[in-house]
Structures are given as structure tokens and as C-alpha cells.
Amino acid sequence: MMPQMPQPTFYIFKCEQSAPPGMPKPSCVNEQTQDLFNYLAQSLMQKGIMGPVQAIRTSCLGRCQMGPVMMVEPGHYMYSNLSKEKIDKIVQEHIIGGTPVQEYLIPEQFWGEPINLAQ
Ligand code: FES
């Protein structure tokens, strides 16, 4: 029998979209923010929680005005305006501690209730 493989505890989807040079539209990755994914990955590695926590690079998550953003699943927790300091606190309090960091979540007017697709 195959040994049981636990599902990940968390997925962290980090937007890694950058706008082409000269594009006026904001995007999550620019010169100032380009090392945030590596910072997150290293932090998970140092804490020995890579595996149960999966950090995934994604393209645009549709909240470019609020970037850099990343979404923590389960729960659809969208964190906005990220910095290294915020990532530290999110890893410590949400990922390890289990309590989302409310003050770093995207403001409610940008993250309303999902539309119900059922007829
Ligand atoms: S570029 Fe990151 S949400 Fe659009």
C-alpha cells in the first residue's frame, strides 16, 4: 500500500506579473518588489515548512492596483501592498499561527462577496 500523502496545509499564490517597461499600469513585480517571492520561499525553507506550505508563482490575480498581492488558500485571503515585513508577519501569524493578519488583507471594497454562479 502506498504511504499516505497529506495534502498541503496552505497554498500561497504570489502574483509574479510584471508590466512591460514603459507601461503605465501598475503591476505586482517591479524593480522594488521583484525579490518578494524569493524572500517568501526562503522564509518557508528556513522554517522547515516547505511542503505543507506550497508557494506558487502566478500571473495576474486581477488586483494590480493593490499590488504586490498574494492569496493564501484555504480561505481566499488576499493580502495587498506586500513588503518583506508584511510577509514575515503573515508567515508567523497566519501560516504558522493560524490567525490571518486582518490589517494586511485587501480592503473590502476591492474584495466583495463572490458572485453566485448557481442558477
Ligand atoms: S499584476 Fe499582480 S494582480 Fe495584476
Automatic annotation (TrEMBL):
CDD domains: TRX_Fd_family
Top-level division of the source organism's lineage: Bacteria
InterPro entries from the UniProt entry: Thioredoxin-like_sf
SUPFAM superfamilies the UniProt entry points to: Thioredoxin-like (SSF52833)
Pfam families with a match to the protein in the record: 2Fe-2S_thioredx (PF01257)
UniProt-recorded name of the protein: Ferredoxin
